[in-house]
Write a structure and sequence with these properties.
40% strand; seven-stranded mixed sheet
Amino acid sequence: MVTVGRMTEEDIVQLARLETVCFGLLAWTEQGLRDELTNETAHFFVIKEDGVIAGYIGTFVVCESCYVSNIAVFPEMRRKGYAARLISAAADNARSLGAQSVSLEVRPSNSAALSLYASAGFEEIGLRKGFYREPKEDALILSLSL
């Protein structure tokens, strides 16, 4: 059984581990994730398979905009459509809060993510020079109209 729900305190340790697996030294810490539980603009969703965390998405909704800060799925849980389900849940939530668009940055070299975002309806709207550090790379800015 696969479920999507809001991030809770009980999810934090596993999500910090997921962050380390996916983002290494640039990973969010347990405390960083915990702080978002009380941030009114933060909307983090977790996807679980049979009660086990498979991935999550972190978004911030301010006025009419939603920004995706992170999306991550454990490597062994990928290619099951979980990232797409997380994007859908976040977009539905943003729409319900009055957002008119969702934006994010992605590495031009991340072909899997680019394919995922294209299939979700995101379009390239710009470029941020030198956005990523480790390794250094520009970021494509993508947007999804709600």
